[in-house]
Structure formats: C-alpha cells, structure tokens
Amino acid sequence: MIKKLALLACSFGAVFASEKTNILFIFTDDHATQAISAYGGRFAKVAPTPNLDRLADEGMLFKRCMVTNSICGPSRATILTGKYSHLNGFMVNEKTKFDGSQQTFPKLLQKAGYETSIIGKWHLGSTPTGFDHWDILPGQGMYYNPDFDNAKGRYQVEGYCTEVVTDKALNWLKNERDNSKPFMLMVQQKAPHREWSPALKYLNAFDDVTMPEPDSLFDDYEGRGHAARNQDMSIEVSMELGKDLKIKEFDKKDQLAKRIHKRMNPEQLKAWNAAYEPKNQALLKAKPKGKDLVRWKYQRYIKDYLRCIKSVDESIGQLLKYLDESGLAKNTIVIYSSDQGFYLGEHGWFDKRFMYDESYRTPLIIRWPGHTKPGSINSHLVSNLDFAETFLEVAGQAIPEDMQGASLVPILKGQNPKDWRKTHYYHYYEFPGWHMVQRHEGAYDGRYKLMYFYDINEWELYDLKTDPKEMTNQFKNPEYASVLKRMKQELNKLRIQHKVPKNKIKDVSNPSKKYITNHKAEVIQ
Ligand code: SGN
Ligand code: CA
Hints:
Layout: H1 2-11, E1 22-28, H2 50-58, E2 60-62, E3 65-66, H3 72-81, H4 85-88, H5 105-111, E4 115-121, E5 133-137, E6 147-150, E7 153-156, H6 161-176, E8 183-188, H7 226-229, H8 255-259, H9 266-286, H10 290-326, E9 332-338, H11 357-360, E10 364-367, E11 376-378, E12 382-383, H12 387-394, H13 409-412, E13 424-428, E14 440-444, E15 448-453, E16 458-463, H14 481-497
Parallel strand pairs: 1-8, 1-9, 2-11, 3-12, 4-5, 4-8
Antiparallel strand pairs: 2-10, 5-6, 6-7, 9-10, 13-14, 14-15, 15-16
C-alpha cells in the first residue's frame, strides 16, 4: 500500500526527497588517470590526490573507462545524451553548438522531480537546457578572476577558477537549492586544462621535486604510422615557452598577457611574478638546448599540471566534507570523472584526441554508500556513454531505448552482468584542427586495439598485453592475422550496432583556420 502511494505521488511529480538518491557529478577537464595516486601510475607517489584516493577507498575505481571521442565538447554531449557524437550531433569542438532541444538525462531527471544544477565549464556553445540552475564559464573559461554566464548575463568573479566554482557549488548546496527535492549537481572544473595555470598559493609546490619522465618522452614513432608522426602536439615543437610555460620573453602572441597578466589585479600579479620570475630567469641564463630544453619544458608542464590538480583535489575534499557535515553523504552518489585523459609526456606529447591509451582512458571513481563495496576496483569496459543511463537508474527512472550505453548500477552493486560489452567503439572527427590529429575510428576489447585513420588509409593494431605503451603496430604482423580478422569484424559489428553512417562523414572541422602553430621548436638564444 505504501509503495502504491509513493508510486502515485511520483506519477504526479511530487517526490519525497529522502527516498531519492542525490547525484553529485564532479567533472574536470583533461585529467589523466596517470595523475591520480589511486590509479597507481607513474605519478602515484607525487600526484596530490588524497581526496580522490579517499573517494576510491570508499567507492569503486574503474580502470577501463573509455571515452567515445577524446575531446571536450563531444565528451560532454555524450554524457548528457548517452549517445555517440554522430547521433547527438556534437562531433567537434568550436564549430558546432549543442542542440539543446534533444533528450538529455538532466531533462529526464527534472521530470522525475529532481532539481538540476550545473556550475563551471559547459563548452557546448548553446545555452544549457534541462537545468533549473546554471552558472557557467563562457567558452573555455579563464583561470584567474573568471567570467561567468547565467540566466541574467555575464559577470566576473575575483579569485581562482577552481575555488570559485567550488564556492558556488557549496553555496548552491547550502543555501540555494530546494531542500524538498533530490538534487543532481554537476560541478565542472576548467582545471587542469591548458595553459595549466595554478592557484597562487600553489605556484611553488613541487619546486624541489624532479618529476619522473615517461620512457617515450623522446619517441621517434618508429613502428607507428603517419598520424602519430605528423601531429602538432609535441612538447618539443608545439608547446609554447610563452603562454604554456609562462616565460614572458617568449609571449609572441600576447597570450600570456591576455590570459594571465591582464586578468590579474596588482597584488595577484606580484605574487605570480615572484613565483615564476626567478625560475624563468635561471632558465634564460642556462640556455638549455635540444633534449635538455625538452626536459625542462616537461618539468615545468607537469609541475603546473599537478599544481592545478592540487586545487581540484582540495575542492573534492571540501565537497565531501560538506556532504558529511550535512548528513547528505549517505544518500548521495558521488561520481568523479574527466572529459578525457591526457598525455603527460608519453610519446613526447601533451593534449589528447588519439585513441591511444592515455587519452582514450578517462578517470572514473564512484562512491555510492550502501550499494558499492568500499575499495573495489573494476575492469569492465565502461564508457562515458554509460553515465546518463547510470544516473537515470540511480534515480529510479526508465532508460530510453535510444540511449546507446548501459547503466553501471549492476556493476556498482558488485554484479558481473553477462551481457556487458566486450568491445568498445571510438571515433574522433576533428581534422584539420588543433593539434592536427587525423580522424580515426576503432575498436578495443580490453586487450587488442584496432585503429583506422581513414583519410590516409592507415590501420594500426596494438596488443596491450604485450605492449601496454602501444609502441609497435602489429597490423602487418602475420602472427596477428587472426586477431586482426576478428577485430575488423568487431569494428564492423560496432558500426552497425551504434548506427554509424555507412558513408564516410564529411569533414566537419573548420578548414579556414590555420592550425599548425609552430613548425620549429623554439630555442633560447
Ligand atoms: C584549446 C587549446 C588546445 C586544446 C583545445 C581543446 N589551445 O584550443 O590545446 O586541444 O582547446 O581542448 S589553447 O592554446 O587555447 O589552450 S578541449 O578541452 O576544449 O577539448
Ligand atoms: Ca578536455
């Protein structure tokens, strides 16, 4: 009888807040799993992630969360819709606007009586739909004294972006939300996106540490194809000493001035200069060349990146603390993820886009008290394609037929669903574009990965068991003939299953833009 009444109440839109699970989705931009201690990668000992590690200790860490398309807007559109880029229409950054009239999980949660809110980076071009509250960074957003857009217009807030977004999220939770409703809050940080600008208080963190280098920092791409060779994302050539590495003497395009110096008040600028100037002057005096300069760039890059992570992690700590203090923790599922992974020097790179492991894999850590066994580690092939479905099931809602992923709820409850995907489909579309990564699609089964760069008609096949760093393309190796045949069949099956258009999708990027920024590595004279 009670159940019936509750159902009746639900069908009229009224929901008992205490019965529904709240959803806190914490999302960052470009956070690689290598930079989270709990993932145990190269930086396990130095990554400043005690709060993320705590979340993993209290929940489930997914080792194989693969993205559908390793780039910002498309990843966000996949999460909102539970659909691949070719069906949600958002295939590349910048040129397209997200069609907000389509079905999204926040809209479905609203119908189920949830109050929905998004704070921070949105990066989908259009005005958010499906949110009762939105307060977003325009475009990529700025690290220092960021602008925000909300229903009333644009305004600026003084402070460091990660902290400002966290304060806004805490304020919404404490003072602004409707306590009679369950909530779904998306806290979306800009950090640790390029140009990796840290909070002033952390500018000198890691000064005494030498960051471990990846084996492939000086990769010669032997054994790979033209796509890996001809990208524009190497630390050596593409990473700028000015904007990226914060040396004003190299700020030829005025980007350092525009993004950082001119946004700061005199006090902030003074603190910023006090931290960077002595280190910069030492470099200009030492004039390292060749590999030594690449090594210096790598150290500055990784330190700034991890300094950004310090604030991200601190923010997570504050949010978890509030959930504890308010008593909300036990009835709130907390999800941590990022829009994709990132190269932290592997293959000599920064940025993402490729289906190679470091940018194809994204962090996913979920704490769901009373449902998920603390400290569990999962290896199922899951995806950002599954997030919408998961949130809907957590909220007790039906999952629409046209969503293409599957709810993670059974996995979170410790089950081993027999029909879980055995292969995952990937497709990247942005060429020509930033960093000049060829368009490609591919299939991955947890061990073998088949990639097809269709515009240059080149295939690559990797065996991640024997070659986890993907250094040797086995496509032409006869020993892999049967694997290749099977993976090609899998790719075809996935294309049909996910309704990928048969004809090659026309170039959807913006060819009028000149993307290659540097053709030669900068030198310090
Ligand atoms: C900017 C960055 C690129 C980055 C894209 C996409 N350049 O254009 O390095 O790949 O964003 O990033 S920057 O000089 O402006 O920092 S994404 O996160 O939006 O996909
Ligand atoms: Ca990103």
